[in-house]
């Protein structure tokens, strides 16, 4: 048996009395090395070696991280399985994005199903407060969005702007990803009190508008500016008439009373 290199008689006492600083130093290795050297636990000439080891570990971690990103974005399930051995599928990345966020955003259905089998957490949020279902819905990846909803993802989850996955699907014109059959609320409002119908009308997504209307979306709902989806649709139609006369709204009839607005559109 070789002798221990931990021979300083005060080392254990230092560790005991300085435990808070040591715990803090775990996230900042340079400060930790300074603390150990100043208290005689580590010799100054050992600092270069320790720093070198730390730098090498960080480099290896970055390489592994980049490889995982590439495996997910390319849909390489075999490579991902190899890279994830011994890692937590919920914390394998060096950011607020999870593997499920990335797989959902890229529409990698096989990767999503693999992660679901691994017990991945469905409702973790990224820096914008968005879940994997937000990502899939915003990109129009219908199969992935349906898989997540079926697995129990929160279809009513809101991001930092209070937008649900349905808001993002409507805003980007992904009518097949609106998930109305999964129980999404067509009249949920975001921070500016806009419903998914407001957003679809603003962007001129007539097919999404039709789907939302069929799902009982309220045409008369008012946002914080007092505007209804009808206002935005009319404004959008005027703008497109002069510049982009494609897929614009054509109003056949609208009727307003104190209780109801009937709103009809056709697709062109």
UniProtKB/TrEMBL annotation:
Keywords, ordered alphabetically: ANK repeat, Repeat
Top-level taxon of the source organism: Eukaryota
A Pfam family it matches: Ank_2
PROSITE patterns the UniProt entry points to: ANK_REP_REGION, ANK_REPEAT
Positions annotated as ANK repeat: 95-127, 128-160, 192-224
Keyword Repeat assigned: yes
The name this protein goes by in its record: CARD- and ANK-containing Inflammasome Adaptor Protein
Lineage: Eukaryota, Metazoa, Chordata, Craniata, Vertebrata
